[in-house]
Design a protein that fits this description.
Length: 96
Amino acid sequence: MKLTDVIRRPLITEKTSIQREDGRTIVFQVAPGANKTEIRRAIEQLLGSKVERVRTTIAHGKMKRQGRFAGRRSDWKKAYVTLREGQKMPEFLEGA
């Protein structure tokens, strides 16, 4: 799996903004098949920051209806990445 396929996008929500206030925790949507080692390697090479810890969780897809038709959104995976002490936050997250 390529590094750009592992990290899908950063998650910018109210909850992740509160966690980001400590200056060390970033949350990303990642590929469902990615493991913690692949996520760590992708973050360190793409962002240039050293990673202390990676925690992952599966977000289950919601049931959605369109009139009488019911469907289900896909499950997806997110990763909570904690940077090492003294590492700088990437620029794309500082202005958010």
